[in-house]
Request: fold
Amino acid sequence: MKKYFVALAGLLTATLASVVLAHATVKSDMGLSESKAGSYETYRLQVPTEKPLDTTEVKLFVPTGLTISTFQALVGFDRSVEKNADGIVTTVTWKGKIGQQEFQRFLFSAKNPVQPTTLLFKVYQTYSDGSVVKWEDEDPKGKTPASRVEIK
Reply:
């Protein structure tokens, strides 16, 4: 009986850990949460579908100081960008389908800010029922935390 409870506790811990770690995240292409100031980096935005619905749209708000130069083409997704008056990409929206229990990675290359800082990547994830999860909490322990990359 004791082995049963130990196994159940382990399964619950693993399940909860996967839910906590499953949010929309931005990391370097090497899977790191840090990068070098002034350098060019390939970033990956990973978005899992966490509801029993399909994800239909992902909108990334580009942190100030990060300059996106190129995107990896992604079959099945339409991409649009908004730019500021200086021609710098401020938001990127991908429309397509991420099925239930699936995730998608969106790759883009960008030049990092020249000064050390923390980049806060806010992401809005839209589901097939029209509901939107806003991954924008500045507190990393918040319910819907924005992803962070340290520029050193």
Confidence is low (pLDDT under 50) at residues 2-21. Residues 49 and 101 are 6 Å apart (CA to CA).
